[in-house]
Amino acid sequence: MDKFSLYVPNFLPREEFFDPKHNQTCIGCGVSLAVRLVGKAAEGLLHKAVCERQSAAELFGVTSDAAFLKLKQGKQTTIICLDDEPENSLDSAVKKTLPGIAVAEGFQYVATACPSYPFDLFEKVQRALESQGNAYLHILCPCPSAWQYKTEDTVKVGFWAVESLAFPLYEVAAGFYNMTVKTLKPRPLSEYLSAQARFAKATEKQLAAAGKQVEKEYGKLLENIQSGIAYTYETTGAVY
Questions:
Q1: Distance separating alpha carbons of residues 98 and 6, to the nearest angstrom
Q2: Rounded to an integer, what distance in angstroms lies between the CA atom of residue 126 and that of residue 120?
Q3: Strand partners, 178
Q4: HSE of 92 in the Cβ direction (CA atoms, 13 Å)?
Q5: pTM of this prediction?
Q6: Dihedral, CA atoms, 21, 23, 26, 28, nearest 10 degrees?
Q7: How many angstroms separate the most distant Cα atoms in the chain?
Q8: Mean pLDDT on 54-58
Q9: Do residues 91 and 108 touch, judged by C-beta distance below 8 A?
Q10: Which of 24, 34, 102, 203 could join 136 via S-S bond, C-beta 3.0 to 4.6 A?
């Protein structure tokens, strides 16, 4: 049992806005977990949410098969990307370009999240909706069928994505960066990638390149947050 299991039901709203009967998702679906949390945070704005995917949708000039939700409040729009990495490539697993583009496009609030960290995700949805300007939230949604791992391991795989630094959790508000989850002892990237059978045929050269890409992207993030950073949660990198 992960350390959130005993607390999540007690501290998140009980009302459900996500109806699994009207959503064609697999057992252990990370998208379903994410949408359920988004629904609780957005409440009336996402009544009985339905997961929909528009093939080859374009956002910021980038074409993606990921699912997107758009929540509008007057002139303010919050875009939520439910990223289950439909490209199914090693590059897409270690490099996320859309959050950075959203910052460059002038979005007032930009953040990354993962349903494995429910409170972090819940709070970011609320901050996005409370933003004075447009907001963008990029949610990593592990997919057991496409990523090829056991259905009961979705939460664990999400933890490993963050702990290996492949998908750091941070937010950007009015141009200022803040790391919301700091991993004190990063997990080897190889553990995260080897947990997914989809990368079983990756060569040592490809894995080494992926490791360098993660180091590069994480280094850029640290440069952006080196001044005025405030950590709200810490993990030893050993949840499992």
A1: 34
A2: 10
A3: 171
A4: 18
A5: 0.86
A6: -80
A7: 51
A8: 66
A9: no
A10: 102
Structure tokens at 172: 């950007």
CA 26, 31, 33, 35 dihedral sign is negative
Confidence of residue 41 (pLDDT cuts 50, 70, 90): confident
Task: Centre a 10 Å sphere on the Cβ of residue 183 and count the other Cβ atoms it contains.
Answer: 21
The CA angle 235-35-143, to the nearest 5 degrees, is: 70
CB atoms under 10 Å from CB of 130, counted, come to: 12
Pick one of 3.40.50.1240, 3.40.50.720, 3.40.50.970, 3.90.1150.10 as the CATH number of 26-235: 3.40.50.970
Tokens of 86: 């439909």
Residue 167 has pLDDT above 50, yes or no: yes
114-159 pLDDT, tens digit each: 999 999 999 999 999 999 999 999 999 999 999 999 999 999 999 9
| Beta strand spans in the chain (E) | 57-59, 62-64, 67-73, 76-83, 109-113, 135-140, 170-173, 176-179, 182-183, 234-235
What does the angle CA 140 – CA 153 – CA 193 come to, to the nearest 5 degrees? 65
Hey, where are the domains in the chain? 26-235
Task: Give the residue, 29 or 14, on which the prediction is more confident.
Answer: 29
Q: How do beta strands 182-183 and 234-235 pair?
A: parallel
Contact present, 34 and 121 (Cβ < 8 Å): yes
Q: Cβ atoms within 10 A of the Cβ of 5, count?
A: 9
Q: Are 49 and 18 a contacting pair, CB within 8 Å?
A: yes
Confidence at residue 238, expressed as pLDDT on a 0 to 100 scale: 44
